[in-house]
Amino acid sequence: MRELKILSLVVAITAVLYWGIEPFAHSQMNPAVAPADFAFEDLEANNKVGDAAAGAETFMMAGCIACHGVESQGMDSPMDNETASLSFGVVSPDLGSAAYLYDRNFLAMLIKDPTRALKVEHKFNDENPHPMSAFYGLGGDIDQEVADIIAYLETIAPSKMSNKEVFEDACLRCHDMKYDKLYMPTQAEPLTEYMGTLPPDLSIIIRAKGHNYLTTFINNPQKHLEGTAMPRVGLKKDVQEQVISYLEEIGDSKKDERTKVGIYIIGFFIILSVFAYLWKRKIWKDL
């Protein structure tokens, strides 16, 4: 009985300390941030109904293919990776999957005002313009022209992409994934100059940061790292989940197995504790 009293006291003290200290420590190490905003409410909605045929023409006249390829439509990237890296700091993305990946309102603002859409106004300005030129229209209703471009991109976007394909299109231009033998096409030196630091390999980021952190961070890096050069990615909610699922598949493939082993170990110690207590009673019962 004495041992049970001591155990109860230890459990009580531990519970009080945990209840009083852990929440504070957690709040300091992981400050609370607003939930991810997949509606991109800080951007104006483009509710225009786009015309894909007109959008294809506008897409060409706007000069998009001067920097971007659309491989699915037979338009290769106009620059090789080295030239693009030196010109822009990062390799320009192929736009064949843009409408699959990115939210419509985000995509509309990205075309009109890249720095605002990407939340990098603190880094780029009139003196230091963003590598992606803003689209100022062809003389008509700019919102309609943007809606037409998006409608065109929607017609050429794939209906389905694997988690790996999504990661490659959305993240691989700046990040390696060495666990899956994927390496960014952008050259390290121009990218470092462009970003201020070399973006990290993402092989174990899921284990370092966790699912909840990445959900808000990818959606808006400024919430966690104010002033970071990493842009808001602008992915749709289900597409972002594909990215995180891929990170879990590659970086934490043993998670389910580890969880099961943990449960078995806890069960083992519970059984061991029972036998240890019975053995102690047997040895000391006559004293």
Largest sheet: none
Name the assembly state.
Answer: single chain
Content of β-strand = under 5%
Helicity level? 40-55%
Uncertain spans, ≥5 residues at pLDDT below 50?
none
CA distance, first residue to last residue: 15 Å
Shape summary? elongated
Model description:
The model has no long low-confidence stretch (mean pLDDT 91). The chain is 54% helix and 0% strand. The two termini are 15 Å apart. The protein is elongated, with a radius of gyration of 26 Å. By secondary structure, it is mainly α. It folds into 2 domains: 52-251, no CATH class; 262-287.
Main attributes of the structure:
mainly alpha; about 290 residues; 2 domains; elongated
Can you describe this structure in just a few lines?
This protein is mainly α. 54% of the residues lie in helices and 0% in strands.
Question: Which helices and strands, and how do they pair?
Answer:
Layout: H1 2-29, H2 52-61, H3 81-88, H4 98-101, H5 104-112, H6 114-118, H7 142-156, H8 163-170, H9 188-195, H10 205-209, H11 211-219, H12 237-251, H13 255-284
Helix pairs in contact: 2-7, 5-7, 8-12
